[in-house]
Amino acid sequence: MKLTDIRKLSTAELTAETTKIREEITELKRRMHLGEVQNVRVIRGKRKDLARMLTVLSEQLAKETK
């Protein structure tokens, strides 16, 4: 997901999206340990997406509290 798309989301949508991505990462790690996932770079991409979302979420929350 691109940063411009992430910035368009509300805080509630970002929270829901981060929860969904965390579940996907957990599932990918489980499948990787079982040997079902061949492309382990997908996990790295998901983690980077999660970091982007959490950064934008913290920026939005900081703006709301001011």
Keywords for this structure?
66 residues; mainly alpha; 3 helices
Element layout with pairings:
Blueprint: H1 3-7, H2 11-34, H3 41-65
Structural summary, described in words:
By secondary structure, this protein is an all-alpha fold. Helices cover 82% and strands 0% of the residues. It has three helices and no strands. It has helices at residues 3-7, 11-34, 41-65. The longest helix is centred in the last third of the chain and has 25 residues, at 41-65.
- The class by helix and strand makeup works out as mainly alpha
Net shape: elongated
Task: Give me the number of helical elements.
Answer: 3
Residues in β-strands, percent: under 5%
- Compute the gyration radius: what is it? 14 Å
How far is the N terminus from the C terminus? 28 Å
Query: How would you spell out the order of helices and strands?
Result: HHH
* Beta strand count: 0
- State the major sheet: none
Mean pLDDT: 93
Which regions have little confidence, pLDDT < 50, spanning 5+ residues? none
Residue share in helix: over 70%
